[in-house]
Specification:
Strand order of the largest sheet of chain B: 6-7-8-3-9-10
Distance between the termini of chain A: 27 Å
Number of domains of chain A: 2
CATH topology of the largest domain in chain B: Rossmann fold
Number of strands of chain B: 14
Oligomer: heterodimer
Largest interface: A-B, 26 and 30 residues
Largest sheet of chain A: 5 strands, mixed
Radius of gyration of chain B: 24 Å
CATH class of the largest domain in chain B: Alpha Beta
Order of helices and strands of chain A: HHEEEEHEHEHHEHHHHHHHHHHH
Order of helices and strands of chain B: EEEHEEEHHHEHEHEEHEHEEHEH
CATH architecture of the largest domain in chain B: 3-Layer(aba) Sandwich
Strand order of the largest sheet of chain A: 4-1-5-6-7
Number of domains of chain B: 2
Chain lengths: ~450, ~300
């Protein structure tokens, strides 16, 4: 094996064999699952008070009441007055801007031929929680069923089954018209957070590794066998592979948890199906997990995304961003004698890193805004910001190409400069160099 | 052919000149003492030989060839500031360092086992370095420096940190390695060990080479026709008898026995001295006074410093 290979191997094995790595790797997915559980809980249960305007132009479920001078539900019991959900009815179309200015949180629009196409649109200002939207859905379903029963006049069980309505509620954000943009940006943010978190954590590992070699004074022995840049790159690559291993195990684990949850869920569905069959009902067509998920709005956005692109760009931006910051961290490790001395040099590295995180958050709200566009080209911030934009799916190919070229060009340059600082720094003890001295080290020929 | 030809090496750092036009040869199969006070430029030179840094000017020939990256596999280097990975196991770490010097894993394991048995440290293989004492760690460092049987060994203060017993073991091993064909460059302040084991020396002071050659020859060069004389009798009468032909360099007395160093005047022999003083005192011992490496070191450095 060549020498850099040996360095990579040592850096990699000495870390993955550590107890802390094994524990973190096993606990990570559980932690994630816990966080996701909290997230799902937040999505399911919210305390917003909803005021829903039902625009019923065809008069499918409402009638005009002369006495009140207003449209009222044909079946008042279907829309009980609840503390957190009020319904109002109208036959007049409301313009988007009028809706925006009103105090309604949702607007339901019913069209002609509702009984046949079974589609309604739900417009919202802020995406409603799963609990709120499913309540609206079931209220509407029972109202439509009542209306149909009334229309048929006479009822037996077979007719009832024919009447049973499964409405498709299409959620449409009133602001953008793209139902899932915000969700996709959220997925992008998730990847941006992983990139940020891993750069932060594993960059610090690189730095600590360099400091360890320097303070234990083994570094001079090593660089009498390998070139300093080989030692530095071996460490950066070795630690990077540890990061990739951890991500890979986390993803595999999470998929496994997802899969097992799916099996449990399908077993549950199967029971329901059996119960239905016993009562003579037709089995619902959605007796598998994936189809079920596709019907859940929050999750269908995940299935709709351009995953190969998102994952591919994630890997590219992860590597590029890691190379940039890890080489800077390596240079810092080389110029100090111990970890407490790192503060002075950490600030200029941590600032762009945290800034990249903030810009990514801003981009979630406005992925095509000027800020997001500009910072998705700047290599110190592009790994996080561009991930959000890639996930949203609005990035042009040329933008990606330019951004990636800038990213890797910069990482090449920074690795080269860091190697120059590293080479000099690892053999210097005592006085911490000033930035002016660091500059001299960088321009000094070997 | 020499093991090493150092030709006109100069090296500057941002704010000072570390080496000025330094040249010397290290003969094959010798133990070569590289001497000099702290900050003289020894470490800079050693790093250039190890290809850790490059010279600004000059060249180095390794067994007649221009120094080349592959040559580092034939060099064993024990730096003055040395250490090991604290969290790594001794065996694992030794294997890693051996592989970095180009040995295969199997070969490295075989040689390490041999060395560990030799130095009776076999049961340390699975210990972590942080569990070892400083002396124990030094032994491991010595083994990892020599296990790839380098043609050239560079040892920077190899005896520091060892107790006298282990220092003796290491000294014996260094001489054995030389006898088996290795060339050794020894950088040290310990002049006793220089006299004991070095064949050649080079002395660097203030970035410049001030002295170099075979140890015996260098000492001969510093031999200024002086003799050590022990006698019993009247010291004043003795001093008077020397007159102008002999110079009293140093003198101290222990009860009635006097000891002094006499430098012979121009054209005078030891016989002349004995004839002159024999009537005055009772001579007990006479021998040539050759300066020790320690004296030479101090003298050379002081002369340099005064001139500068």
């Amino acid at each position: 094996m060549n020498k850099i290979g040996l360095v990579i191997q040592r850096e990699y094995l000495s870390r993955v064999k550590k107890k802390s790595f094994i524990i973190m790797t096993l606990l990570g997915p559980l932690l994630f699952a816990g966080l996701m559980g909290v997230g799902i809980f937040a999505a399911v249960a919210d305390s917003t008070e909803h005021k829903v305007l039902v625009v019923d132009k065809p008069g499918a479920i409402s009638v005009y009441n002369e006495q009140l001078g207003a449209q009222v539900p044909a079946c008042p019991d279907c829309f009980p007055e609840r503390d957190d959900m009020l319904y109002r009815f109208t036959s007049e179309q409301l313009s988007d801007s009028a809706f925006m200015q009103s105090d309604y949180t949702m607007m339901i629009e019913l069209y002609e031929g509702l009984y046949q196409h079974k589609n309604v649109n739900l417009y919202y200002k802020k995406i409603p929680s799963v609990m709120a939207s499913s309540r609206v859905e079931s209220d509407l379903e029972s109202a439509v069923e009542r209306a149909k029963v009334k229309q048929e006049g006479l009822i037996d069980y077979e007719s009832y089954k024919r009447l049973k309505v499964n409405l498709a509620v299409n959620k449409v954000s009133i602001e953008k018209g793209d139902t899932f943009q915000e969700g996709r940006a959220g997925v992008g943010m998730f990847f941006a957070v992983i990139i940020f978190f891993f750069i932060f954590m594993f960059g610090a590992y690189v730095m600590r590794g360099v400091i360890e070699e320097k303070t234990s004074r083994i570094v001079e022995v090593i660089i009498s066998s390998v070139r300093p840049i080989e030692l530095m790159m071996g460490k950066i690559i070795g630690v990077g592979l540890v990061a990739i291993t951890q991500v890979a195990i986390w993803v595999t684990f999470s998929l496994l948890i997802f899969f097992v949850a799916g099996l449990v869920f399908e077993a549950g569905l199967l029971n329901d199906t059996l119960a239905l069959q016993q009562t003579g009902a037709a089995a619902p067509a959605n007796a598998d997990f994936e189809t079920y998920l596709a019907q859940q709005d929050g999750i269908s956005l995940l299935i709709e995304m351009n995953w190969p692109l998102v994952i591919g760009m994630f890997v590219i931006y992860f590597i590029g961003g890691y190379l940039i910051y890890a080489s800077l961290f390596a240079a810092i490790g080389a110029v100090v004698d111990n970890e407490t001395d790192t503060q002075q040099y950490m600030t200029p590295v941590m600032m762009p890193l945290f800034f990249s995180y903030l810009v990514a958050i801003m981009s979630v709200n406005n992925p095509e805004g000027l800020t997001a566009q500009v910072f998705s080209f700047i290599p110190l911030t592009s790994p996080t910001t561009m991930m959000v934009r890639v996930a949203v799916g609005s990035v042009q190919i040329w933008e990606l190409v330019v951004s990636v070229i800038l990213l890797f060009g910069t990482s090449y340059l920074l690795v080269w400069l860091a190697a120059k600082i590293y080479r000099t720094g690892i053999l210097m003890y005592g006085k911490r160099p000033s930035y002016k001295e660091l500059w001299k080290w960088m321009i000094y020929r070997s | 052919m020499n093991a090493l030809d150092v030709k006109g090496i100069s090296k500057s750092y941002a704010d000072h000149k570390a080496l000025k036009n330094v040249s010397f040869e290290v003969p094959q199969q010798s133990i070569f003492g590289l001497l000099g006070p702290n900050g003289a430029g020894k470490t800079s030179l050693i790093r250039i030989i190890n290809r850790i840094t490059g010279p600004d000017d000059g060249e180095i020939l390794f067994f007649g060839e221009n120094l080349h990256p592959e040559h580092v596999n034939h060099i064993g280097y024990l730096p003055e500031e040395r250490g090991l990975y604290k969290k790594m196991k001794v065996g694992e770490q030794s294997l890693y360092l051996a592989q970095l010097k180009g040995l295969s894993k199997q070969e490295a394991r075989k040689r390490l086992q041999h060395w560990f048995e030799r130095l009776e440290i076999g049961d340390w293989w699975n210990k972590k370095v942080e569990e070892l004492s400083k002396g124990m760690a030094q032994k491991i460092q010595f083994v990892t420096t020599v296990m790839h049987e380098p043609k050239l060994l560079i040892l920077d203060e190899p005896f520091s940190g060892f107790d006298p017993i282990n220092a003796a073991i290491v000294r014996k091993e260094i001489m054995r390695l030389r006898d088996e064909g290795s060339t050794v460059i020894l950088s040290t302040h310990n002049m006793g060990s220089v006299e004991e084991i070095c064949d050649h020396i080079a002395l660097i002071n203030r970035s410049e080479l001030v002295l170099n050659g075979e140890v015996d020859e260098v000492r001969e060069r510093f031999n200024k026709n002086e003799y050590l004389l022990k006698f019993k009798g009247n010291a004043v009468a003795f001093a008077n008898s020397l007159w102008t032909q002999f110079e009293l360099i140093d003198k101290h007395s222990d009860e009635d026995i006097h000891e002094c160093i006499i430098k012979l005047g121009e054209g005078k022999t030891l016989n002349d001295l004995l004839v002159t003083i024999a009537p005055e005192v009772e001579i007990r011992e006479v021998r040539p006074h050759i300066p020790s490496m320690n004296d030479i070191f101090i003298k050379a450095v002081q002369t340099e410093t005064m001139e500068a």
